[in-house]
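Standup notes, protein team

Yesterday: finished cleaning the Ahniella affigens set.
Today: DNA-binding response regulator structure.
Blockers: none.

Input for DNA-binding response regulator:
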Amino acid sequence: MIAQILIVEDLPRSQEWLTGAVQHAFPHAEVHVADCIAAAELCLAQIQPQLCLLDLGLPDGSGLSLIEPIRKRRPDALIVISTIFEDDAHLFPALRAGAQGYVLKDLPQQTLADLLLGIERGQPPLSPSIARRLLAFFTPTPTTPANQQHPLTERETEVLRLIAKGFSVPKVAEQLGISRNTTAGYLKDIYRKLEVSSRAEATLEAARRGLVSTEAT
């Protein structure tokens, strides 16, 4: 039973939307609202919420930075991201960080309440468009002849794995003991072989083809 809920959101209108939804879904729960990371940390020093709804863009940082302290305080807490961002560059880092749900702020309040009610039935709260994006991501893509003709080299795979972990080009170069120019060259070759134009796209495409893991490391 969910008895304590923490909402971390800086916009008053979004605070009202989230508060109304959780009060409808869990009318007997105690709801705490924080408008920044610092305020949330103060709340966590006093409560052990079973459900946390976190915004990504807060005045003093990313809501993702709260996941670890929440886990330390309450290991079984359910953490749901509430955001306007539905792109892969925000979704997958949130899931890798430990979020168990991801809802968009364009949902009607009643729809959000219904998604949250699904928690007690073991259903992760996901906006419909996010659920479709996840299904598309994990749908196997057929290997094309071009992919077979241009596999990544062992060194390129090493570079890609580090890029997937969020390392910058200088940091990748430092880790592998090679120059920045050489690293940039490897990254350029990776883009060409995977037919992508950004590091985020390269990481996702490589994960689809089984070249790197999507799990947090």
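Follow-up from PR in the comments: DSSP finds eleven helices and seven strands in the chain.
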